[in-house]
């Protein structure tokens, strides 16, 4: 897999049922090792190991219903108080550019979850913005904040 602009971690990778799989620390199971999953696992480990996010307050592949259709948020981070969603993270393969279309996708998810932070990463570039839900505005941040700053 391609090197990413994220710290390395000890990935648990196995060949199972004729497929290469990686252990998902949040879902606690092995999943197909796709380029997008490579980004997801690196980013999740980065949040846990570098930014002090608790794995118990994070979930991968969270189902949301949008306009009557079922969709999945790549990762959702929750508040400790009441387990209210706090951040949505959308991942793309490293060869996929982060465009307005990607931001539109995560904003649609936010119409349902109403979180304060949106993050998009292709493993090479990462964008984080703080959303002001009352005023309908957002501000891009220089870095992914540690959990204690959320």
Shape annotation: globular
Binned, the helix content reads: 10-25%
Low-confidence stretches: none
Tally of separate helices = 2
Architecture (CATH level 2) name: Alpha-Beta Complex
The description of the largest β-sheet is:
6 strands, mixed
Assembly state = single chain
* Beta strand %: 35-45%
CATH fold annotation: tt1808, chain A
Distance between the termini: 32 Å
Task: Indicate the radius of gyration in whole angstroms.
Answer: 15 Å
Quick check: average pLDDT?
94
For the secondary structure, the number of strands is 9
CATH class bucket: Alpha Beta
What's the number of structural domains? Answer: 1
List the strand order in the largest sheet: 4-5-6-7-8-9
Q: What class do helices, strands and sheet pairing give?
A: alpha+beta
SSE topology string:
EEEHEEEHEEE
Walk me through the structure:
- This protein is 20% helix and 38% strand.
- The chain is α+β, with helices and mostly antiparallel strands and 150 residues long.
- The chain has a single domain (13-149), classed as tt1808, chain A.
- It has a six-stranded mixed beta sheet with strand order 4-5-6-7-8-9, with helices on both faces. Strands 1-2-3 form a three-stranded antiparallel beta sheet, covered by helices on one side.
- Strand 2 (19-24) and strand 3 (29-32) form a beta hairpin.
- The longest helix is centred in the first third of the chain and has 16 residues, at 35-50.
- The model has no long low-confidence stretch (mean pLDDT 94).
List the helices and strands and how they pair.
Blueprint: E1 13-16, E2 19-24, E3 29-32, H1 35-50, E4 58-66, E5 69-78, E6 85-91, H2 100-113, E7 117-121, E8 126-132, E9 137-141
Parallel strand pairs: 6-7
Antiparallel strand pairs: 1-2, 2-3, 4-5, 5-6, 7-8, 8-9
């Amino acid at each position: 897999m391609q090197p990413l602009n994220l710290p390395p971690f000890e990935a648990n990778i196995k060949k199972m049922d004729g497929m290469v799989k990686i252990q998902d620390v949040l879902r606690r199971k092995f999943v197909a090792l796709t380029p997008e999953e490579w980004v997801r696992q690196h980013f999740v480990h980065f949040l846990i190991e570098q930014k002090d996010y608790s794995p118990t307050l994070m979930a991968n592949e969270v189902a949301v219903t949008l306009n009557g259709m079922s969709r999945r948020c790549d990762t959702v981070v929750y508040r400790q108080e009441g387990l209210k969603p706090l951040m949505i993270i959308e991942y793309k393969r490293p060869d996929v550019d982060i465009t307005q279309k990607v931001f539109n996708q995560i904003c649609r998810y936010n119409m349902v979850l109403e979180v304060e932070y949106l993050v998009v990463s292709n493993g090479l570039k990462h964008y984080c913005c703080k959303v002001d839900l009352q005023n309908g505005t957002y501000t891009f941040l220089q870095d992914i904040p540690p959990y204690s700053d959320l």
